[in-house]
Amino acid sequence: MMLPKFLSKRRKPLSAGQLVPLEQLDHMLDVTSDRFTSTVERLAGQFLRSRATLDLAQFREGRRSPVNQAGMPDIPDLRGTSYQTELRRITPMDREEEFRMARRHEFLRALVIRGLVAAGFDASEAEQRIHRPARELVAELRARPASRAVDASWLEHVVGQLEELRNLYVEGALYIVLSTVNRYRGLGVDTADLIQEGNASLFQAIDGFDWRRDVRFRTYAQYWVHQAVLKMLYNSSRTVRVPIWVQKVLGKIRRAQEAGRREGRELTPEELGTRIGIPAERVKWVLATRRYAVSLDAEIATGEGGTMAQSLPDPSLVPIPESIPAGDLREVLNETMADLPPREQGILRRRFGLDGDEPQTLGQIAVDLGITAERVRQLQNAALGRIKKPSKLRRLQAFVE
């Protein structure tokens, strides 16, 4: 973009503590691109010596004026949120305002860096610290010894103004985020989270934007917003995180599979690898990562109404074989029935097969003993009643599942 020719008229020097409106700053920076850097250095020196600051309050008040909806870019309607309603109250930047704001930001960055260098920081340290929150940088300035080369209160004020200007810069570009977020709604991540991630990426776009390349900030920022939204989706849409590059390959495989289905067949891993340009072994490995989480509360299709969690073992429970104390079941049974009459012991052994033989019926036992089956049943119940005493049951309980 060819900037307007710089004015040949000599400008008046800044007065001490002057409050400079942004329109006046734009007038001072209205030079050709090849002279912009030298102009910024000269103006930064004048601001530093005169302790002049920018009138950002007046600019913010101007933004609160009613917005002309006719000239605004199209803002998608995100149903279920009030965000777009609030956004329509902020005047978005047009092409000319984008370039003006970029030049203001570059000047104020240079001014803060120059002030930090005068306060005792190295140039490289100053470059790194301007990206920190203003409150942290101000706290660090107050912890350092005062410098005679710069007014401490003025520098703290300018540091705060840089952060405020960046916020104003982002506010004018917030509408850029909605068009991207609107494309990726309903993919497992809350819309508000996507908007927040996209808004944060605008600060990265501001730091990397170069207005000298004759490219709109909107065009440049859309790349950063798109990358931030995709990263948020890749990292948050799955319960188990899958690396971003794997998800990108999965996307290519899915598109190739859809193209194969339109052709009427399912593509093999070898054919998929040929179409997307990766080995077939890599395709098989990536497809193996395509797993989905299952809720523990999901019902199992058994018809009994059970859930997945109910089918999992409980590690806190001691397994049945390990809960049985050392000892022989036959030995414990013999000790338990030791005080029973011999005939009742024999009936229980034959009735339940305690000696390893097949269990016998009441009739078979009655024939051998020469009594009725009913009498055998009565003797059996009497023997079981004696065994069911608490002292005997405690010893047998360990063998009961």
Sheet with most strands: 2 strands, parallel
Query: If strands are numbered along the chain, what order do they take across the biggest sheet?
Result: 1-2
CATH topology of the largest domain: Four Helix Bundle (Hemerythrin (Met), subunit A)
Number of helices: 20
Mean pLDDT: 78
Number of domains: 3
**Total number of β-strand segments?**
2
The helical percent reads 55-70%
Shape: elongated
Q: Element order, helices and strands? A: EHHEHHHHHHHHHHHHHHHHHH
Strand content: under 5%
The second-level CATH architecture of the largest domain is Up-down Bundle
Low-confidence stretches: 1-9, 68-72
Radius of gyration: 41 Å
What separation lies between the terminal Cα atoms?
85 Å
What can you see in these coordinates?
There is one protein chain. With 401 residues, this protein is an all-alpha fold. The chain folds into three domains: 19-236, Up-down Bundle (Four Helix Bundle (Hemerythrin (Met), subunit A)), CATH 1.20.120; 244-287; 325-397, Winged helix-like DNA-binding domain superfamily/Winged helix DNA-binding domain (Arc Repressor Mutant, subunit A), CATH 1.10.10. 58% of the residues lie in helices and 1% in strands. It is built from 20 helices and two strands. It has helices spanning 22-28, 33-50, 56-63, 83-87, 95-118, 123-129, 134-143, 152-171, 175-181, 191-208, 217-236, 244-262, 269-276, 280-288, 320-323, 329-336, 342-352, 362-369, 373-387, 390-397, and strands at 19-21, 53-55. It has a two-stranded parallel ribbon. α9 crosses α11. The longest helix is centred in the first third of the chain and has 24 residues, at 95-118. Mean pLDDT is 78; it is low at 1-9 and 68-72.
